[in-house]
Amino acid sequence: MTNSIGNINRLVPGLIEQTGAGKTDITKQSDSKEVGFTELFNDMINSVNSIQKDSAQMQEAFMNGEPVELHQMMIKAQEAGVSMDLLLEVRNKLVNAYSEIMRMPI
User: Fold this and answer.
1) What is the pLDDT, as a whole number, of residue 11?
2) Which has more pLDDT, 97 or 17?
3) Which of 45, 56, 69, 70 has its CA 20 to 30 A from that of 37?
4) Chain-centre distance of CA 57, in angstroms?
5) Can you give the residue ranges of every domain in the chain?
6) SS3 9
7) Are 25 and 99 in contact (CB under 8 A)?
8) CB count, 10 Å around CB of 12?
C-alpha cells in the first residue's frame, strides 16, 4: 500500500500531503482513530477541487493582466489536469471493482 501512495505522490506532488494521508500509515496507526476509505476519498476529491480552483484563479489573474509567470500558470494547469485524471482513474477502478463484485455468483 505504501508503494502505491508513493507512486501517486510522484504523479501529483503535494496531493498526498494535502489529503493528510502521507502523515499516517493506514495499516499501522498509533492512535485509536482509523481513517476510513470514505474520508480518504473525500479528502482526495477536496484536494483535487482545491488544485483546480488554484489553477483557475491563476489563469484568471493572468488574463486580467496581473503579474503572473506564464510557466507557473502552465504548471498549475498541468497539475490540475493530472490530478483530475488520477481521480477519474481511481473512480473508474472503483466502479469496475463494484461491477465485478456484483457479477459474482452467490
Assistant:
1) 53
2) 97
3) 56
4) 19
5) 2-22+32-103
6) helix
7) no
8) 21
Min mean pLDDT across 12-21, 32-41, 65-74, 80-89 is at 12-21
* 95: phi then psi, degrees, rounded to nearest 5: -65, -40
User: Concatenated DSSP letters for 51-94?
Assistant: HHHHHHHHHHHHHTT-S--HHHHHHHHHHHHHHHHHHHHHHHHH
Residue 1 carries which DSSP code? Answer: -
Q: How confident is the model over 41-88, as pLDDT tens digits?
A: 899 999 999 999 999 999 999 999 999 999 999 999 999 999 999 999
Q: What are phi and psi of 58, to 5 degrees?
A: -65, -40
Handedness of CA 77, 59, 16, 41 (dihedral sign): negative
Record the cell numbers describing residue 78, joined without a space: 498541468
- The pTM of the whole model exceeds 0.85: no
- What is the DSSP code (8-state) at residue 19? H
**What DSSP character marks residue 105?**
-
